[in-house]
Amino acid sequence: MSDQRTTPATAAPPPDEHQRMEVGAEAVPRSRVARIMASPAGRNLGLVVALAIVCVIGVITAGDLFADVDNVVTILRLAVVVGIVSIGMTFVIIGGGIDLSVGAIVALASVWATTVATQQMAADFHWTIIVFTAMAVGAGCGLVNGVLVAYGRIAPFIATLAMFAAARGLAEIISDKRNQLVDDPGYVDFFARELLGVPVLVYVFALVAAIGWVLLNRTTFGRRTIAVGGNEEAARLAGIKVQRHTVYLYVLLGVACGIAAAMLLARTGTGTAQHGVLLELDSIAAVVIGGTLLTGGRGTIVGTVLGVLIFTTLSNVFTLNNLDTSDQAVAKGVIIVAAVLLQQFVAKRAGST
Amino acid sequence: MTDPILRMTGIVKQFPGVRALDGVDLDVLSGEVHCLLGQNGAGKSTLIKVLSGAHRPDEGTITWLGEEVRLADPTGAMRRGIATIYQELDLVDGLSVAANIFLGHELAAAGFARRGEMRRAARDLLARLGHPEISPSTEVGQLAAAGKQVVSMARALSHDARLIIMDEPSAVLDQNEVERLFGVIRDLTREDVAVIYISHRLEEIREIGDRVSVLKDGRSVATGLPAKSTPTRDIIRLMTGRTVEYVIPERRQDSSTGESMLSVEGLSRAGEFEDVSFEVRGGEILGLAGLVGSGRSEILETVYGARRARAGTVSVAGRRLRNGSVAASVAAGVGLCPEERKSQALLLGESVAGNVTLASLPRFSSASFMDRSAEIDAAREQIESLDLRPPDPRREVRLFSGGNQQKVVLARWLTTGSRVLLLDEPTRGVDVGARSELYKLIQRLADEGVAIVLVSSEIPEVLGLADRVLVVRDGRIVHEGPAADIDEHQVLDLVMEGSAA
User: Fold this and answer.
1) Residue of chain B whose Cα is closest to the Cα of A219
2) Is A9 on the interface with B (CB under 8 A)?
3) Across the interface, which of B22, B412, B432 has its CB nearest the CB of A238?
4) From CA B366, how far away is CA A220, in angstroms rounded?
5) Residue A91 and residue A284: Cα distance in Å, rounded?
6) Contact A23 B431 (CB under 8 A)
7) Predicted confidence band at B205 (pLDDT cuts at 50, 70, 90)?
8) Does the distance separating the beta carbons of B404 and A221 come in below 8 Å?
9) Residue of chain A whose alpha carbon sits nearest to that of B335
10) What's the rounded Cα separation, in Å, for the pair B472 and B462?
């Protein structure tokens, strides 16, 4: 037998190999600007510009009222709860899911953490019991969501819609629809205490965001999240336990809701079943504006933080100008659509396939 | 029946990384049934999409009824009289038969649907198709697959289609329904409607077809062969043979001495394959030859644990793998390069490095923290070893050509340290020029002691690469022996046995 086996051609002659090897590269012509704008850093740059524009509008319309240190702290304080939830939401959405129950979980966690029994325990031991209770309640709700989605094969939209209804209902039952005050003054004081002029509350948000960033960008957990959301089948065939990971994602978001509930208790001093109304919409909107794909597989924590800040700052500007919440709601709607259209435009220009 | 109603010449369709169509010629005569054959990935679906206006070709011309046309979108194609009946029927289950037939071009007066008229027209069309028993007011979701197909055809006729493209219509039908479908097709052709009929089943093509065209690797390898008289062997040869000259290097290493690496015993899955047993030694390439639907891919995925076996065992280096657990297989050193690279293996938007380490993340992390420089180093090592081009570990995988994407999948398993590689159509969608490179790579891996199971639609590829060959037909192994002892013709006889010759 000869060194090499060949058969004669039955059709077209062999093409120029080199020409064809380059095909992949040439099929995506991109200008430098477009490429930068399409990179995660570039998208975030766009968000920084958007935030700057909102601030400029604030200064023009509200002047010193807006550009005041106390006002900036107010904005940050208001960003804490939605911000912490949005960090968790970023993971679930990158992982290909969605969670509509976050507001209800926050309400339930805030109520559960301020029951007489919990507060008695906290008084006997330490006020951190309240925080841990809220986190545990959140984790439990997240676990239920995750198991229903991953193993029950219920669409995330439906499974979390059920939790949306049930958790708030449970919160009303537990609290008997009453406001539950946090008894321990040490609790509220701790988070209201200021370091370098900024309340501890805000540091908690920063810490959660930092942990989220590290988790997404520097750990195997983050990689698996991107893989599961980007291409579930590929993740499965690469040996990743997709179902288990999906459960982890919802538990993670549940814990974030618990932390958010604890911060809400610190800010308001009250646990109530009315906490967290529309929080699911605000957090999903912040995540999407932050550049995370609703279809999963791609997103950034920095983008989410910027998305949260844009929304919160905008609300602040509206409030300072004495516009009511209805106007704010309309503006929010417009901004969500505009941001997503802009993203699609940039993505298209960048030649994404 | 002399002038073609449709003539396609030199059609090229390019997607990032691969040429799906690379010079397709096709002409269809009025009133004929023109069969289109080709393996998975040969370009049939892309060609259909070009014809139905869903894809615009990059090169080539389409002549329809004597004039050159551009089919800009599906509506345009429909309006010219080209109707497509897709495999997954595009019907709305919740609407009535009549509403489905006239979907998008409802008969209406002043904005109000003329329901009575549509029902009457639908009844006429259904009768013309020989199915007057289907009531126009039935909800489509209530109909069986065969009934839905008739509704799709009625919809095509409602557009006065001159050409109906049917993508594997028989796949969901039983024998009787297929016979009735053929009756309908014959009636249509009698009215000078042309049909492009796609199927894997040669016996159907014999029965219904007038002429046959064969696609392979995005090219026409034969056009307008007589459907009734062309020998089956020739047709299958066209589908499974090589389109262009390429080289499979001779192996020098003796593979008969390695230790048994992968051992499969009595593996079965209901309706897919029965009692499959084989062994592969380290350093050996075992080829699995068989036609589409023979069960070859299913066998591979079950060995891998991506499908749960009903019976039988899989062992790697003497240790039994847990049934239905991919993670266990990966941990035991088994890797799968699946048939659909893009949808089953790759994270297209992620970097080469991110794809390469996906199956061995724990190795590139300590306490869950990724060691990114180790990751990039590992990717670099593979890039160099596999000659990935361009050699950039941070480049997104979607920007690479098909052959280079396949290398990324291989790199993943090499990085994981796999000792058993299951390759499902490793050269599918890979430009012909890049193939010999992949062949060399596969041989080198075997020489380094990896046990390889290779599935390919191309019989010469299997024979050229493998040391030993299994032939699969209808979910059973019908032959096992050294690749050197069997030639392409004998394999063809084995894979075809039982189908009409």
Assistant:
1) B369
2) yes
3) B412
4) 9
5) 11
6) yes
7) confident
8) no
9) A238
10) 13
ipTM confidence: 0.77
- Which residues lie across from B194 on neighbouring strands? B163
- CA B39, B43, B46, B52 dihedral sign is negative
The separation between the first and the last C-alpha atoms of chain A, rounded to the nearest angstrom, is 46
Distance of CA B260 to the CA centre of its chain: 32
Q: What are the domain boundaries of chain B?
A: 4-240, 260-333+418-496
Do B260-333+418-496 and B4-240 fall under one CATH topology? yes
Q: DSSP state, B88?
A: S
Torsion of Cα atoms, A194 then A200 then A202 then A205, to 10°: 170
* Rounded Cα–Cα distance for residues A254 and A85 (Å): 9
Residue B347 DSSP SS3: coil
What is the CATH code of the structural domain delimited by B260-333+418-496?
3.40.50.300
Q: Are strands B365-366 and B369-370 parallel, antiparallel or unpaired?
A: antiparallel
Q: How far off is chain A from B56, nearest CA to CA, in Å?
A: 15
Partners of residue B312 on adjacent β-strands? none
Mean model confidence pLDDT for chain A: 85
CB contact under 8 A, B433 and A14: yes
Alpha-carbon distance of B331 to B336, in angstroms, equals 13
Q: Which CATH architecture has domain B4-240?
A: 3-Layer(aba) Sandwich (3.40)
The stretches of A95-193 forming alpha helices (DSSP H) are 102-112, 116-124, 128-150, 156-175, 185-192
Residue A297 touches chain B, beta carbons under 8 Å: yes
- Which pLDDT value is given to residue A17? 35
- Is residue B95 within 8 A of residue B103, CB to CB? The reply is yes
Contact assignment for A231 to B412 by CB distance below 8 Å:
no
Residues 6+ apart with CB under 8 A from A330: none
* pLDDT top residue among B7 and B457: B7
Are A303 and A48 within 8 A, CB to CB?
Answer: no
Sign of CA dihedral A137, A138, A141, A146: negative
Domains of chain A: which residue ranges? 81-307
- Checking if the pLDDT of B456 tops 80, the result is yes
Name chain B contacts of A235, Cβ cutoff 8 Å: 358
pTM exceeds 0.95 for this model? no
Question: Alpha-carbon distance A96 to A4, whole Å?
Answer: 49
The partner residues of B471 in beta bridges, in order of sequence, read: B289, B479
Average the pLDDT over B407-414 and give the result: 94
CB contact under 8 A, A223 and B370: yes
Rounded CA separation A56/A279 (Å): 27
Predicted confidence (pLDDT) per residue in A42-63, tens digit: 678 888 888 898 899 899 988 8
Q: Write out pLDDT tens, residues B46-101.
A: 898 899 888 889 999 999 998 898 888 888 888 888 988 887 667 888 889 998 88
Interface of A with B in 24-63 (CB under 8 A): 24-25, 27-28
Closest CA to A137 of A116, A108, A114: A108
- List the single residue in B220, B244, B404 with the smallest CB-CB distance to A9: B244
Residue type, B35: C
Backbone dihedral angles phi then psi of residue B244, each to the nearest 5 degrees: -130, 165
Residue with the two structure tokens 């897919």:
B272
Pairing mode, strands B451-456 and B420-424: parallel
Nearest C-alpha of chain B: how many angstroms from A38? 12
Q: B313 — alpha (psi -120 to 50), left (phi > 0) or beta?
A: beta
Residue B440, pLDDT above cutoff 60? yes
Contact A216, A291 (CB under 8 A): no
> B225, B250, B257: which is closest to B238 by C-alpha?
B225
